[in-house]
Amino acid sequence: TFGSVWLQNVKDGRIRAMVAEIKEVEGTKVHLTNGATVEVDVIIMGTGYELHTPFLSRDIRSTIEVSRDFVHMYQRTFHPDLPNFACVGLFNQFGPYFPVMELQSRWVSMVWKGVTALPSREEQLQSIQHFKE
User: Fold this and answer.
1) Contact, 105 vs 88, CB < 8 A?
2) What is the DSSP string of the chain?
3) 82-110: per-residue pLDDT in tens?
4) Taking burial as the number of CB atoms within 10 A of a residue's CB, which of 19, 78, 92, 94 is the most buried?
5) What is the pLDDT of residues 25-54, one digit of tens each?
6) Has residue 111 got a pLDDT over 50?
C-alpha cells in the first residue's frame, strides 16, 4: 500500500513537501504564494489538527486547560479534580487512533468499576505538570 512506502518515496524525491499556500492551480501547475511554481500529480492538503470541545462546559474546559492541540489531563484521560469525568481520543498522535482509544476505554472502565486505581492526586498533578513543561 501507499502508506507503507511513502517515507521511502519522500526520501527518493518522488514525493516533495511544499510548505506554502496555493495561489492558483493551472492543470498540473501549482503557483504558490512564496513565488514558486511546481508541476504536480496530486495535491495533499495537510490541514492540521485543532482540538475543539464546545460540548464541554467552560468549567471543565478551564480545569483541563483545553488549548488548540492539548488537554492537560493525566495520561490525556483523567483529571484529579474531575473524579467522574474521563476523555477518550483527545490526543494527537502519529499512527492509528482506534487501538489507543480502545485501551483508553478499557482503562476508564476498569477505574470506574474499581478494578484498578489511579495514582494519588499529587502524582497525577505532577505528571500533568511534567507534560506542560
Assistant:
1) yes
2) -GGGTHHHHHHHTSS----S-EEEEETTEEEETTS-EEE-S------------TTS-HHHHHHTT--SS----BTTTB-TT-TT-B-SS----SS-SHHHHHHHHHHHHHHHHTSS-PPPHHHHHHHHHHHH-
3) 988 999 988 877 778 888 889 999 999 99
4) 78
5) 888 898 989 999 998 887 766 655 677 788
6) yes
